[in-house]
Amino acid sequence: MKQRRAIELLAPAKNVDTGIEAILHGADAVYIGAPRYGARAAAGCTVADIERLCRFAHTYNARVYVALNTILYKEELQDAQRIIYDLYHAGVDALIVQDMALLDMELPPIALHASTQCDNRTPEKVKFLSDAGFSQVVLARELSLQQIRNISAATDVPLEVFVHGALCVSYSGQCYMSAALTGRSANRGECAQCCRLPYTLIDGNGRKVAIDMHLLSLKDLNQSNRLEELLDAGASSFKIEGRLKDVAYVKNITAYYRREIDKILEHRSDEFYRASDGISTISFTPNPHKSFNRGFTHYFLDGRGKDTIIQPDTPKSIGEPIGALCRVIDNRTIVVKSDAHLHNGDGLCYFDNQGTFQGFRLNRVEGNTLHLASAQKFTVGAKLYRNSDHDFDTALQRPTAQRHIEVSITLAEQPSGFAITITDGKTTTTHRCDADKTPSRTPQAARQQQELAKLGNTPYRATKVEIALTQDYFIPPSQLSTWRREAIEWFHRARSIAYRPDRRKAAQGNTPWHTDTVDYHANIANPVAHDFYRHHSVATATPAFELSPVADAELMRTRHCIRHHLGACLRTPQGKNLVAPLTLQQGNVTLALHFDCARCEMVIKKG
Questions:
Q1: How far apart are CA 493 and CA 501, in angstroms?
Q2: Could you count the other beta carbons within 10 Å of the beta carbon of residue 475?
Q3: Are 220 and 167 in contact (CB under 8 A)?
Q4: 340 DSSP 8-state letter
Q5: Is the pLDDT of residue 123 over 90?
Q6: Where residue 203 falls among pLDDT bands split at 50, 70, 90?
Q7: Disulfide-capable partner of 198 in 212, 249, 319, 342 (CB 3.0 to 4.6 Å)?
């Protein structure tokens, strides 16, 4: 019989409070930034805060992963090592890392996950990382279902896939545009997001094909209706992007994916089970369209399709489509055709005649007549979007979730009095309550059940309370309350003791790298990482781009193709309509576009 697989919903945490909300709203694990050396330099957290998050998460058998996934310079190795020991003692379950030096350093037995920054997109690479000692591998976002199936067939390491949030247009870990143009390296957690800027596309005749368009800015990922296919392809962990996102975003998106995953687990419980404990009760209806989004895409899950994967008009959030403008009364009053329930204070947006993204706030709503807080210039027929739902946003500012572990409680007799047994199906404790047994003339079971079920602000909820006594005994309510409190404290301690964190996976010898040379794409920034590759049969290794910039380097390699987007693929007759060479211009910056048609990839270099 095929072994059941644990399925994990992995949510981002900007800080400890956001991490706690992610757990409450249904996450099986959260990932948070280390004090330093995380790929989001602005999202580092203290060890003390991370320890607090671990204590909370472990109550529900949920995991805490810490992102320490930049490349490390020689002088930073000792500091990184010290931080890792501190994180281990704080109770962290795993580190998400990029720098291969960490596999050859003396570290505590903490589990290591291979960051998507490692560029994990082939069966050979993922198997190598598994053999090298990684317990989980974060796959590249660009992979199709078939590619994920191929990787899953080649290794038994748990596979983590992104299912929601912002997309990097470059293969992760392989983008040097920010480092080359601004001195801020993406591999050092300081990406300047050059891909979100507007560019002018110029062809070989000097013609401006597109002017000030966001030609490298991708839509956001949303695989919520493809989760079951991803499970069947071999995914075990569903990752939500967003370590810089606010708590309202994390609440909404986590709750939404929890609901969608639970639908699958309900009818396929013989194959999959949830990776943590507890049931979340949510006080709102989650809707991903109401959180920050640039429009949604499945990216390359089905290969290269006809759907556009970029949002060329704006890198800002467009929210949810709500209808169209059908009449302009004046520059502060409009009539719309919409089925949406709009509210005073909502934020709406649209694209004007010049294609410029505009936004405004509603002062008052009277049916489909909208009174604006400021004057606007409109065109009848313009499509309208809501990127801020006032009532929804206000609701998310309040407490919106509780999470409880279901337990059964039994009150029974024992020679010296009574005993309270509590079980969640995995952990069982019995608390002895010494006392005289005083028979009662009136029924006591209903009152005793009611008292034992009062679990208050604990993480537990009594779904069954059994009074297993041979007769009615009188127990003072205050005494029974004290026993119940002591019993649940003992049960909670027992669960904490029973918690087993992940531990470092043993490496399978010095598995050889698939080539005997590596260039700057390996991101080798310190001698220990260099030695790692040497130990794995690499004879020649080039230093990281950040240490030794290469004049003609690929600043970016991407599956996104501007030619394909414009309907001028070189594999089609229409490709002749766009004369090479193509360049992107942004201010004083010129970027040259190259097309690797054999791999169906676009390469960007300095012009």
A1: 16
A2: 23
A3: yes
A4: S
A5: yes
A6: very high
A7: 212
